Amino acid sequence: MIQITESAQKRLESLLDEDGKLATHGLRMKVVGGGCSGLRYELSFDDELRETDSEIVAGPVKVILDEKSALYLVGTTLDFVDTLQESGFKIQNPNATSTCGCGDSFAA
């Protein structure tokens, strides 16, 4: 469904472990309406797995997707970069037909 790079797995593991939530929480990836192009990503830590959620295990980290968001995220890769020019999670989504100039939103 989605792929999580090794660098993203390590960063997520580190963030969850710092807060003592590695065993209880996962990363919720969500697509919501908004932004210049109509859709945007939300990333948050969540400890609730709802009936219609999908869970992907990437090393010691769980990634949680709701049913609607999963449709937009099929084939997506979550990466983490940390360079002199940029630092953060990068989402490469083959379903995005366009993105806004600031890169915060997309259309599918």
Outline the structure in words.
It is a single chain. The protein is α+β, with helices and mostly antiparallel strands and 108 residues long. It has a single domain, classed as HesB-like domain (Hypothetical Protein Aq_1857, Chain: A). The chain contains two helices and nine strands; from the N terminus they run βαββββαββββ. The strands form two sheets. A six-stranded mixed beta sheet has the order 4-5-2-3-9-8. A three-stranded mixed beta sheet has the order 1-6-7.
What secondary-structure arrangement, pairings included, does this model have?
Elements: E1 3-4, H1 6-18, E2 26-33, E3 39-46, E4 54-58, E5 61-65, H2 67-73, E6 77-82, E7 87-92, E8 98-99, E9 105-107
Parallel strand pairs: 1-6, 2-5
Antiparallel strand pairs: 2-3, 3-9, 4-5, 6-7, 8-9
List descriptors:
single chain; 108 residues; alpha+beta; Hypothetical Protein Aq_1857, Chain: A; 6-stranded mixed beta sheet; 2 helices; globular
SSE series:
EHEEEEHEEEE
Radius of gyration: 14 Å
CATH superfamily: HesB-like domain
CATH architecture annotation name: Sandwich
Largest sheet: 6 strands, mixed
Low-confidence stretches: none
Structural class: alpha+beta
Write down the CATH class: Mainly Beta
Annotated CATH topology: Hypothetical Protein Aq_1857, Chain: A
| Strand segment count | 9
Terminal Cα span: 17 Å
Share of residues in helices? 10-25%
The residue-averaged pLDDT reads: 91
Which strand order do you get reading across the main beta sheet? 4-5-2-3-9-8
Work out the strand percent. Answer: 35-45%
Count helical runs.
2
Kindly give the count of domains: 1
Shape: globular
